[in-house]
Specification:
The complex is a heterodimer of chains A (about 140) and B (about 90).
Chain A lengths: L8 H7 L3 H16 L3 H14 L4 H13 L3 H14 L4 H13 L3 H16 L6 H15 L3
Helix pairs in contact in A: 2-3, 2-4, 3-4, 4-5, 4-6, 5-6, 6-7, 6-8, 7-8
Chain B lengths: L7 H7 L1 H4 L14 H17 L5 H30 L1
Helix pairs in contact in B: 3-4
The chains are: A mainly alpha (about 140), B mainly alpha (about 90).
């Protein structure tokens, strides 16, 4: 899985939350998502991105909640926020691909798919679930109507 | 018949986008954070009460934090209560 980017002491001074607290709240939100408590999880994630705006996983999970609610503009915004923190995050890139395909923006979808393809070829994506999702989205891109 | 537990493979099949979200091993040791998160909740409530009406953006930010903490503390309370009953 992706490594948590080290937060600077300045972040801690500004927001006051420890890394352990941030991860605990994030994991709780993830548990909510897995149990189908999407709105409950979205409330946690909304707060989390306010108090820890440089915690990339929270932005991706927030993007998931917007995708679930079919609010693709907000989902794109959150995925881009994740990429602002980790520019080569494959999960955030794949989320963007899905949003772009849904929004019929095939040029952007193709560009992001290309970025993930390069990451996979360079051996920078080792999680098989990410590779499978890439293949699924690639097939969706190639079969577009 | 034994109870069915989804495997990681099944999790991907049912919700691939959820399955690829980064994970750090689950929400453990929640009780450790009760005091600190409650203190933050008190602090954010006090901050909200002292804000003037012009600070709408700050108010929104603080409200998001407060709602998050409320939900987390409720979850921790329910979990603690159920553990005490066992």
């Amino acid at each position: 899985m992706e490594r948590v980017p080290a937060r600077t002491s300045n972040d801690l001074i500004k927001k006051g939350y420890s890394d352990e607290e941030v991860i605990f709240i994030y994991e709780l939100a993830l548990q909510g998502l897995e149990n189908g408590q999407i709105r409950w999880a979205a409330t946690l994630l909304h707060g989390l991105v306010e108090v820890a705006p440089d915690f990339c996983p929270a932005w991706i999970a927030r993007s998931y909640t917007f995708m679930y609610e079919k609010d693709y503009d907000q989902a794109v915004f959150c995925s881009r926020q994740a990429l602002r923190i980790q520019p080569a995050n494959p999960a955030a890139l794949l989320y963007l691909v899905s949003c772009m395909l849904t929004l019929d923006d095939y040029n952007s979808a193709g560009t992001y798919l290309g970025e993930v393809s390069e990451l996979i070829e360079a051996g920078r994506v080792t999680d098989t679930r990410l590779v499978r999702l890439f293949r699924m989205l690639l097939a969706r891109f190639q079969n577009r109507g | 018949m034994g109870k069915y537990w989804p495997t990681k493979h099944d999790a991907f099949s049912s919700s691939p986008f959820l399955a690829v979200l980064p994970s750090f091993g689950g929400a453990q040791a929640g009780k450790t954070y009760v005091s600190s998160l409650y203190a933050r909740f008190e602090k954010v409530s006090a901050q909200m009460a002292s804000l003037d009406r012009e600070s709408e953006q700050d108010l929104r930010r603080l409200n998001a934090e407060k709602m998050m903490l409320e939900n987390v503390l409720d979850w921790l309370k329910v979990r603690t209560d159920s553990q005490a009953e066992e």
